[in-house]
Specification:
CATH superfamily of the domain at 5-16 and 63-223: Invasion associated locus B (IalB) protein
Number of helices: 5
Structural class: alpha+beta
CATH architecture of the domain at 5-16 and 63-223: Sandwich
Distance between the termini: 92 Å
Radius of gyration: 27 Å
CATH topology of the domain at 5-16 and 63-223: Immunoglobulin-like
Length: about 260
């Protein structure tokens, strides 16, 4: 499929990227004002409650590294080729979309670019918003060496990130099973996307997709996305009446019995 922002449904995953570890973020945002001076006639400090009487702590969002195992949203990798008029070179890219769960809209896309006559290849990612851009991203094939890449540009519904690699890295991807991509969200928690790359080599070395077939796939994908959006809209509308119903009033507590008259 074309490497486009149109198909990225990153809203749900962006929430995870934005708010994973918000407990630590909230603590970091507290201003460090100096403590006020104690008054001369200070009242005795209240006795802290016993351990078993302490109020239960609020449940905090998960902190620390988060791993997201992605699944393909397409049956296979797609190889697209065309001529770049500016460079006057043929460029092919092999791409696939991935989702956090089967049957859901894509949240990440991976494409490997191969420029004819150039030994340098480009690993390009389309990822959700809500990430720290300055550290860039790190990636590795299975348990191989870690490589680095950088973010190039962001739009309201996704960011492009890429790394330039040599043919040896492409060969590793062809033979590998998982491409791990590590990024950081805006509260400095590490998010790792585990991308399955089985079948990539066959598509990368094989022929490009027929333009007519590609156009038909695009049309089908748009129809599926529109259908899912309509189903979600209907689901939300169906849930509105229940949410709008007022809660049942709490019955008044029984009044206490009058105290007996003094003797």
């Amino acid at each position: 499929m074309p490497f486009s922002l149109k198909r990225l449904g990153a809203a749900g995953l962006a929430s995870l990227l934005l708010f994973a570890g918000t407990g630590a973020f909230a603590q970091a945002k507290k201003p460090a004002h100096p403590a006020p001076a104690a008054p001369a006639q200070a009242q005795p400090a209240p006795v802290p409650p016993a351990q078993d009487q302490a109020a239960p702590a609020q449940q905090q969002p998960p902190q620390g590294p988060v791993k997201i195992d992605l699944v393909p949203t397409q049956n296979d990798w797609t190889k697209v080729c065309g001529k770049d008029p500016a460079a006057n070179k043929e460029i092919c890219y092999t791409t696939r979309d991935f989702s956090a769960k089967a049957g859901e809209a894509p949240v990440l896309a991976l494409a490997i670019y191969d420029i004819k006559g150039d030994d340098t290849r480009i690993v390009r990612l389309l990822v959700p918003v809500g990430l720290m851009l300055r550290p860039g991203f790190r990636f590795a094939i299975d348990k191989g060496a870690t490589l680095e890449g950088s973010f190039e540009i962001c739009f309201p519904n996704g960011c492009f990130a890429e790394a330039k690699v040599k043919g040896a890295t492409i060969d590793q991807i062809k033979k590998g099973s998982i491409l791990s991509v590590a990024v950081k969200n805006q509260v400095n928690n590490e998010i790792t996307f585990a991308i399955p790359v089985a079948g990539f080599g066959k598509a990368f070395d094989g022929p490009a997709i027929d333009p007519k077939v590609l156009e038909e796939q695009q049309k089908k994908l748009q129809e599926e996305l529109q259908k899912r959006a309509e189903e979600e809209r209907k689901r939300l509308e169906a849930a509105k009446p229940d949410a709008a119903k007022p809660a049942a009033p709490t019955p008044p507590a029984p009044s206490a019995a009058p105290a007996p008259p003094p003797k």
